[in-house]
């Protein structure tokens, strides 16, 4: 499993990589799998095949490039937004938010948490084997139809509360600034909250409870009340205003609607990579100073360069296994991935120069330490339900 920075990638990046490059991506980054990535990949099932490859083969090939050991499946943004509005904070620390695990107590009394295989990872595993359930075909068709029918331009132009800013809008930077201003505006807190509840499709039965909590907190602006919901609302307003200002192409609204959804998950990664020009323009607008956007072609070139570096290592080094000789990026040479580690994980070079050597003796001690917990996990998994 990688010790590297957390990374969100889209379909365009994975499509550009060959299997070896995808392997080294997993080795040096902790992948954050978003629901929108799965939806984007799944959408290929309804496309007309080109050449000899079937849609199922194309989707299976993409799924095969997702490394299961170094990838974490993030909870969908809508569930997180609801929890945030209800007062259950969502951590936005550059780490994925995963589904809760099961508490397990071993025979010594120690408590551990076990995370079962996420449904998304289970689906990817099946897709790799060419196993597609009928519901997945239906979901792909429904998603594409729903996106195609959204009249986003009309929706954007109907936003009366941004009319006063319309003349200021010249660039996407202006759009992002105005969208964030709406979220932070302390003069229209209640209107902003109601607009967010509506735009984010919060179930009506929760509105009273959310508004009651908001009043108990003395009516703060949305970003102070529910920071993650505020982030998602700002992204949504950015998209709608950008459409209304004709800075986002409405002719490609189906694709851009999917692309924009990746931005909902930016708080859960250290870096984002894509080969898509729309992402190259928009993702940095919603990143903080500690995060990095990586253009897909640059990352692909560096992964190819990295592969050549590792292929050139002596046989005795390669025989140790990539978990040993590639636990960290190269310390020498000019590699983009090494520079990204410098920026995102300062101090990694010290650990790389002084790695922990897993000797047979140390491995035996670790297994003795873990065995009670492993036995407890095995017992709970095999218990009748």
List keywords for this structure.
385 residues, alpha/beta, 2 domains, two-stranded antiparallel sheet
How does this model look, in words?
The protein has 21 helices and 7 strands. It has 385 residues and is α/β, with parallel strands linked by helices. The protein folds into 2 domains: 204 residues, no CATH class; 115 residues, no CATH class. The strands form 2 sheets. It has a 5-stranded parallel sheet. A two-stranded antiparallel ribbon has the order 4-5. Strand 4 and strand 5 form a beta hairpin. About 3% of the residues have low confidence.
Which percent range fits the helix content?
40-55%
Counted by DSSP, the helix tally is 21
Please state the overall shape, judged from the principal axes of the Cα atoms: globular
Strand proportion:
5-15%
Strand neighbour order, sheet with most strands? 3-2-1-6-7
- Ranges where pLDDT stays below 50 over 5 or more residues in a row are 149-158
Give the overall pLDDT as a whole number. Answer: 83
Instruction: Characterize the biggest β-sheet.
Output: 5 strands, parallel
What letter string, H or E per element, gives the SSE order?
A: EHHEHHEHEEHHHHHHHHHEHEHHHHHH
- Category from helices, strands and their pairing: alpha/beta
Short description:
With 385 residues, this protein is α/β, with parallel strands linked by helices.
Give the helix/strand layout.
Blueprint: E1 6-9, H1 11-16, H2 19-28, E2 30-33, H3 35-42, H4 55-63, E3 71-73, H5 77-85, E4 102-105, E5 111-114, H6 119-128, H7 134-149, H8 152-157, H9 172-184, H10 189-199, H11 207-216, H12 222-225, H13 227-244, H14 253-261, E6 271-274, H15 277-282, E7 292-295, H16 296-311, H17 315-318, H18 322-325, H19 336-344, H20 348-353, H21 360-382
Parallel strand pairs: 1-2, 1-6, 2-3, 6-7
Antiparallel strand pairs: 4-5
Helix pairs in contact: 2-16, 4-6, 5-13, 9-13
